[in-house]
Design goal:
The structure is a homotrimer of 204-residue chains. Chain A is 74% helix and 0% strand. Chain A has 204 residues and is mainly α. The longest helix of chain A has 26 residues.
């Protein structure tokens, strides 16, 4: 049950981040562009995850609440666009919440399908970042994952902690919350402090 | 049976539109480039649809007639390239026929697999536009769906009408033809009259 | 058994080619960028193939040795980067070995799943080139397949020879080796001699 709500909240949050990104670009200033970018951002990662795992039919084609969550997210973005003046900050916030929820959801679903823990962590990370990669490519931004910020690394860290706590027998609900908070807080702290990944010089 | 022919005609038409787009760009002026672009345009949307629905194996790997339809489309394009001087107009025509057939096919197949009607319309639209999105990205054009023209909106309208008529018990064959004509005529009329989607200004 | 090793060697080789490509671009000079590009290059083609065929779960999420092969390839690339000064030549070499192994693997797997021989050859080619297409797009190069060199054509030739020898009853192991050598040698010879595909002029 809780895994269902994690999915809905992640989907809703990614829809907002997609709509915000489209909003920030003049070429997407029509209703379709904003909806479409929100939609693709919201379903991208989950679709990749489910297709890789062989889950059918994929959640959003089976259960109409996903499309409802996406539509609500996009409409709220359009409605409150004046208050979201600082697009970039809002975008980063909603993207961060989205990757937190989707990482843990992805790891958990993968483990349920008998995937090995190492691949489960990678698949969790990929499902979390993929929607945003498409979003950034659609609005012609360099994807956040290649910005040398702590981004995918935060997902990996949260996924590893989730898998380790699970091995130690920590209750699933506690485990989920700890995992989500780990991803979000690593991402926020590293953004505030300007942390980045070590640079590998070509001649070192 | 009719659904099979809708698929073959859509595939054939998209292959022509892909080959035409490749033809219009110097970098694709070799046989492989023209064939490959035609092929990807033709199978892109259907593959996305079948993978999302969990249909296996996908039509074109099971049934050799799809590859035959694609090859015929590409070869006809190469053969008649002198008569298709106005690449852009021909491209728009074949693309329009393609999205008409693929929208209705996608909605119908999705409903057969128990998808909810709302998701079926969206999946129908996505299967119709996806091949063209890849085609336009391959030849470095801004995808038609982002051109503020009535494009994906025409697919959505046709899909909605198909679903509504179906609920009303209209015979499947009539329903299919009405749906296809709806998509194609909305697209053509809006192109001729220069209709576009409402622009959402940032400060309104 | 041999098919498993063909897959592991192809995966390992593509991981090196991906890591080398990332290395050659300044924007990827962090550990995550090099690993991620190696990973996506290595799994891209096989994932596309398995998703199209409906194989679940996909090899790399089931069997941890794939991720091990990728990690080894990337780490070896980082470790020996000084000796691989001529990035471009090394990249072409490892990419060539990769497409050789993956073409034959893709054709063989497709035939096992009852795909028609024509589609099997195309799917073998696509699984061989897809990882490299994503790799080249990620590092902002024009994909090798569009460079007018003999590239995808070498894969097609190897796939056709594999299918023909199989019809003639040649033992599977001999057949696999002949197919792989065909792809690799056509690619290397055409690179050395500067062969390219015929150019289709617009006005001819």
């Amino acid at each position: 049950m809780m895994i269902y709500w994690i999915d809905i909240i992640g989907t809703f949050t990614f829809a907002i981040s997609g709509a915000l990104a489209a909003w920030d670009k003049k070429m997407y200033h029509d209703l379709f562009g904003v909806f479409f970018t929100g939609f693709i951002t919201a379903i991208g990662g989950g679709t990749l995850r489910d297709v890789t795992l062989g889950v059918h039919p994929i959640a959003w084609v089976k259960d109409a609440y996903y499309i409802l969550a996406i539509s609500t997210g996009v409409l709220l973005t359009i409605f409150f666009r004046k208050r979201l003046q600082q697009y970039r900050k809002s975008l980063l916030l909603f993207d961060t919440i989205g990757i937190g929820f989707y990482t843990i959801l992805g790891v958990e679903k993968s483990l349920q399908f008998g995937v090995n823990p190492l691949a489960a962590v990678i698949l969790g990370m990929m499902s979390a970042i993929f929607g945003g990669v498409i979003r950034d490519m659609m609005v012609n931004e360099i994807p956040l994952i290649f910005s040398r910020q702590i981004y995918a690394t935060a997902c990996l860290a949260g996924g590893v902690i989730f898998v380790l706590l699970r091995q130690l027998g920590v209750p699933e609900n506690v485990n989920e919350i700890v995992g989500i908070i780990t991803v979000i807080s690593i991402r926020i702290i590293s953004l505030k402090r300007g942390w980045s990944l070590p640079h590998l010089s070509r001649n070192s």
